[in-house]
Every structure is written in C-alpha cells, then in structure tokens.
From TrEMBL:
It comes from Winmispira thermophila (strain ATCC 700085 / DSM 6578 / Z-1203) (Spirochaeta thermophila). The lineage of its organism: Bacteria, Pseudomonadati, Spirochaetota, Spirochaetia, Winmispirales. Pfam families: PGA_cap. Transmembrane segments: none annotated. Belongs to the CapA family. Residues 38-282 form the Capsule synthesis protein CapA domain. This is Capsule synthesis protein, CapA.
Length: 392
C-alpha cells in the first residue's frame, strides 16, 4: 500500500508520569499461517442506549466475528465505563453492564484500550470497577488491556504479549479526560504541550527497545474531523521515530487517512490517524434519505489488518486486509431496530438491510470508496469475509 499523506516531520506531546516497566500476561493465540502474527485494529466500541438496550449483544458482531476469531490479536478502544452494580447510562457519562464487553470478547477482541475521554465518566469508582471487570475477563478469556491502573504509580506500565516468538508491547494513552475525578489512574499525555510531549517521547525511546514490536494507542484530536490535525500528525511521526511500530488512534468518531512510514533505518511503521466508530448509536436519528449528512460518517469504519513476523534479529510488518464496515439498524421484534456491524460489499456496495435502506447504503458505499481511494489507495480488490473485501 502506498503512503496516503505527505506530512512534515514535526512533533506531538504528552502529560504523564511513571517509570518504564512491563508486565507479562498470558496470550490467547488464534490461527494464522506461516509464522505470521495477524493483528486487527478496530475503532471505538461505544455504548449509546440503542446499543446496550439490545437483547442479544452477540448479534452486534455476527458478521465480523469470523474475521476477528481468525487473527492472533484484535484491538478495540473501549469507550465506556464497565459497572455491574449500576444501571447502564448513555452520553455524556457512559456505563455498561459487563455482559456488553464480554460479547465483544466472545466475538474475538483480545486487546482493549481503556484510555480515552470517557474513562472517568463515573469517577474513580467507575475506573476501578472497569479494571475489576476487565481483570475478571482477562482471567477467564486471556484478554489484554492497558490505559488505566489501580495505583497511580503504575501508570504507563507497558502490557507485554508474546505471540509466535514476537514480543509485543502495548501502551494506551489519552490526550484528555472529560471528568477530573479518577483521572490520576489513567495514562494522560497532553501532546500539544511541548514539555509533556518531549518527556513522553523520551520515555518511548527507553521502553520500545525492550520489545520486538510496539503498538501505541492514542485517544485524541478533534471530533468529527475527517483529516487529522497537524499537531497530531507531527506527534505520531515523532513517536514512530522513537521506536513505535503502529500508532493506533481514535476519538474523532470518523475515519481518517492512514499512512505507511519508512524510517531512516529501513523499518516500516503504520499510523492509523483515526479508525472512527466501530460500534455506536451516533447515526440513530438518520433516515434512509439522509445519506449526504455529515453524521453518516460516524457509522462507517474499517477493520485494519497487518501481518508481523520475526526474521532473524528484525521484525517485518506487511499490509493485510482493510475491510470496510458499517453500523446497520436491524429490526428486533416490533421495535425500530438495534445496531449491528456489517461488512460493506465490495462488489455491489450493498449490505443486508430492510428495503428502504438499500439505496442509502449503496450511495454511502460509493461515497466511502471514492473518499478512501481518493487518499491514494489502489482500487478495491479481493475479499475474504462474506460480503467484504480488502483495500490494497
């Protein structure tokens, strides 16, 4: 895949504290071939009321679960508090029952970013509850998570995963919080501030050499922008220069361009500026005739895959599939419907929907494809999922 953006070599920045360290967590390995480690990156797993009121959370993922279960690690940004002791709540202070997250795990998600602006929506108690529930799921399913901790001094502890001999480091940070209470337990990096940015980048220089491959999750930027801010671009490129292999970002709730970078030493790195919403209810108020609305972009994303393999003393990364996905309203009994994730059809632009929505999704797919190909991608080719394909 060719680079999508020609960016200046600038910087980004953090607000942080803590020493470099790592912890080992058992890794559940799925199947991939030829010694390659297959990684899948998704966008935001949100929890609006139309999402958590579903009777069957597993139905959200039924179309994409086969892809997620076939890889080695699937990454998603969990943008809600997890509490079983209180009723669920939607925007602006999200909270869900643990069953909502467990469905995502059953679908195949293995790695969760917990650092985002909604981490502290329910205060410190909410942060601790989320960590308790994630620890329970980790014990049962072998999942991994990063971004929040139970003790302030443990912030910026890198999660260590080893798959097929590849030592993978994972760190999740957020640019800001919506709520102050509990924020001392979250990895915060206010990257527009030069001093904080430099301190964090120096930290990366120390910890990334401890791993064969390093994934940095960054929640930040400006919401609903379809092009990343320059300060964000600059920071991510600087993070790559400090040893990060994949910068995986979210917060804008819409898809932004991605970029392959070749470092001076010949290493290939990937920057995902925003993967948008993987699951949300942000298009709920749209009707079949609203296909030109800006809000429609919040219902579309991709599952971005890469393959990683150790070759002697170095690790190589090559592009995998880029599978376009969309949030679709599906009828549930007599109710208007619930949101599920569907893979766009590459050949026809159609997904399985009620007749009034068929034209909406045909038009949206044409716009979506023209928009992404316009970044510099080659035409869509190939496919693997039912009703899906790969941008190459």
């Amino acid at each position: 895949m060719i680079p999508l953006l020609l960016l200046g070599v600038l910087l980004f920045g953090p607000l942080w504290g803590g020493e470099e360290s790592s912890r080992s967590v058992p890794t559940s390995v799925h199947s991939s071939e030829g010694g390659w480690v297959l990684l899948t990156f998704a966008g935001d797993l949100m929890a609006h009321n139309v999402n958590y009121r579903m009777e069957d959370y597993d139905a959200i993922y039924e179309d994409v679960a086969p892809l997620l279960r076939r890889d080695d690690l699937s990454f998603v940004n969990l943008e809600t508090v997890v509490r079983g002791s209180a009723p669920p709540s939607s925007f602006p202070r999200f909270s869900v029952d643990p069953a909502y997250v467990e469905a995502a795990v059953r679908a195949g998600f293995d790695v969760f970013s917990l650092a985002n602006n909604h981490t502290c929506d329910q205060g410190e108690e909410g942060v601790r509850s989320t960590l308790k529930e994630m620890a329970r799921l980790s014990s049962r399913y072998g999942i991994h998570y990063n971004g929040a901790v139970t003790r302030r001094e443990d912030r910026f502890t890198v999660t260590r995963m080893e798959v097929k001999g590849v030592r993978i480091g994972f760190l999740a940070v957020s640019e800001f919080m919506n709520e102050i209470e509990g924020s001392g337990l979250v990895n915060l990096v206010y990257f527009p501030h030069e001093g904080r940015r430099r301190a964090f980048l120096d930290f990366l220089s120390r910890v990334t050499p401890q791993y064969d491959f390093f994934v940095l999750s960054v929640h930040g930027g400006e919401e609903y922008r379809r092009v990343p801010l320059e300060v964000k671009r600059a920071f991510f490129r600087e993070a790559v220069s400090r040893g990060v292999d994949v910068v995986w970002s979210h917060h804008p709730h819409v898809l932004q361009p991605w970029e392959w970078i070749r470092t001076p030493e010949g290493r290939r790195a990937l920057v995902l500026y925003s993967l948008g919403n993987f699951v949300s209810g942000q298009t709920w108020r749209l009707g079949p005739s609203d296909w030109e609305e800006e809000r429609a972009y919040t219902g579309e994303s991709v599952l971005f895959q890469v393959r990683v393999r150790k070759e002697g003393e170095r690790v190589v990364m090559v592009p995998g599939q880029v599978v376009p996905v969309v949030n679709v309203v599906r009828k549930e009994g007599e109710r208007r419907g619930v949101y599920v994730v569907r893979a766009f059809s590459v050949l026809t632009g159609r997904v399985e929907v009620d007749p009034p929505w068929e034209e909406y999704f045909r038009r949206r797919y044409r716009m979506f494809r023209a928009w992404v190909v316009g970044w510099g991608l080659d035409p869509v080719r190939g496919g693997s999922l039912p009703s899906s394909g790969a941008f190459r």
